[in-house]
User: Fold this.
Amino acid sequence: MSSPNRGNVTIVGGGPAIGNINVDLHEAFKDIRRTDFAAGRSINLALSYRGIQSLKRAGLDEKIKSLGIAMHSRMIHPLNNPCYEIPYGRKGQYLLSIDRLKLNQDLLTGKLLFMVLQCSKCMTIKLTSNASNPVVTNWVYRLPVIIKNSGPNILLVLNRENGGNVDETSQVLFGCDGAYSAVRRQLQRGLFDYAQVYIPHGYKELCIPPTRDGEYAMPPNHLHIWPRHTFMLIALPNQDKSFTCTLFMPITKFEKLKTGDEVLDLFMRVFPDSVPLIGEEFLKKDFFNLPPLPIITVKCSPYHYKNKVALLGDAAHSMTPFFGQGLNSGLEDTLLFDELMEKYECDFDKVLPMYSEIRCPDGHAISDLSHKNYIEMRDSVTSLWFLFRKKVDSILHFIFPSLIVPKYSMVAFTRTRYSKVITDSEKNTKIINVSLIGSFAVLVGFAISAYWRTQKRESIIPEIFFTAWQCLSSTTAHFRNVFL
Ligand SMILES: Cc1cc2nc3c(=O)[nH]c(=O)nc-3n(C[C@H](O)[C@H](O)[C@H](O)COP(=O)(O)OP(=O)(O)OC[C@H]3O[C@@H](n4cnc5c(N)ncnc54)[C@H](O)[C@@H]3O)c2cc1C
Assistant:
């Protein structure tokens, strides 16, 4: 393959969304491959199709899958009623609960090897590596990153942790440095749209340890949810038989909790079945160990600057965690980027604008979808209408697998563009609601006229045929209107 771009590639930020592109890495945190805890953020997270596809491209999918626990359904814990399940998709479809630290460690190790193979086609790779134990050079740099144009290259001024600046030129810079991206801040000086919003809710992590006999305290193959309308508790399983719980609640409600007894009282009132599992002592004492963390959403456009800078992952689109897509979409960014590199033969003049053109609407769409899913998780999952609609959706999906795909399945189990998920699911909702209302009206008509006929001792068989015909023709007419 001929390559118009031969030069260095620099990455700022070594979080998980860095995925399968990496050449010369500058990371502010210490080398995560040599630590036993992940800084900030959740301890585990849900990996789904998009993330796994990206890992597959890097040859890491099987390794990472072996580190996860399959969650086939949501397990809802209502207040004072028995638990019930809501499947995520069809049989065999699941989310993978995965340890963030292990995932990140493997990404950094495996990814470097992968990049040597992948990028050597078109770039000079600046990293010291021996095949089995790649080493990242220039590890510890801190904010700020200052970017200046320097002919065909870009000049980075990096602040070293132990003082002093270092200048470095690079042909392309990838900003993978998370929601508070220093690279993105540099782009904000030009023609660049940017908006950030803190939602009123924050989160705090708790733990359900294994039982005394070393088993899971709850069934492990589910994402457990305690929906309480304006707030919720969730729990994801870990391989060590514990669960990581996350309490999402308005920050103002967190602030009202001043003592251990108040925390215990809240949990006894709203999450009573979780109290013996988490432990009264933990709730009373350790709850206050860390403050609740805020949740920021970031939308920006474009995701690139000329043929020189691209933003990936949270640096481009930080979102609320309620669809479990933050990391998955970040990994999909890298997959898309890789696909474009292949398509345009590593020509950054074409790849970077095209990446922005495709990805910006999708980044904005998944941000909106994630926010809406919070209402679904903490509130709608308790409503009968929601449960009925989920059933109808899955039956229709079973009958028309490629025509009607539930929104959740499109997001979690396909690579349908997020912006298309919104338009398709709006269409689906319209068609299903109209069909349900139409069928209900026809059935009521049928009941009335059948009653009238039986009163007159007449046969109701013509009525049955007429009703079935009405249902069928109104539904197909609606299908045609929406889809053709
Ligand atoms: C509570 C919670 C639960 C979540 N659950 C899920 C889930 O289930 N599924 C899912 O897909 N997503 C989930 N997410 C979202 C997911 O965590 C993020 O989308 C993902 O971590 C983004 O990866 P990233 O690499 O873009 O950014 P980050 O993970 O933030 O990594 C950025 C890296 O850049 C480094 N850095 C920052 N600034 C600089 C600098 N100037 N110089 C050098 N290095 C720098 C940082 O040290 C860090 O290592 C969740 C998020 C939260 C908060």
Notes: Residues 12-18, 26-29, 41-42, 45-46, 141, 143, 145, 176-178, 182, 203, 246, 313-315, 321, 324-328, 330 surround flavin-adenine dinucleotide (CB under 6 Å). Confidence is low (pLDDT under 50) at residues 1-7, 16-23, 110-144. The radius of gyration is 26 Å.
